[in-house]
């Protein structure tokens, strides 16, 4: 598999790749539970933004993909807690995700420092 960057900078913005709780060597989810996958994705987001010279507080737009609408209340609560008053614009889509067992994937656009 070709490695891809977790984030790229351009024109004063940071664009993340789709972030998901996936083992890159086996292409399988790192956990089966939604809470664990969500925590992993949010940790990855903080790391990707920091490495690209940004932060969660500079996030302008977030796209979230959920494997099932049952996860929406948990996602909504985690989103509010994670971003607080600096919450970005967002879209949440319920869809089939590309890897069996994957429950959530997110991508963001943020301001670069």
From TrEMBL:
<dbReference type="InterPro" id="IPR035959">
    <property type="entry name" value="RutC-like_sf"/>
</dbReference>
<dbReference type="GO" id="GO:0005829">
    <property type="term" value="C:cytosol"/>
</dbReference>
<dbReference type="Pfam" id="PF01042">
    <property type="entry name" value="Ribonuc_L-PSP"/>
</dbReference>
<dbReference type="InterPro" id="IPR006175">
    <property type="entry name" value="YjgF/YER057c/UK114"/>
</dbReference>
<comment type="similarity">
    <text>Belongs to the RutC family.</text>
</comment>
<dbReference type="GO" id="GO:0019239">
    <property type="term" value="F:deaminase activity"/>
</dbReference>
<protein>
    <submittedName>
        <fullName>RidA family protein</fullName>
    </submittedName>
</protein>
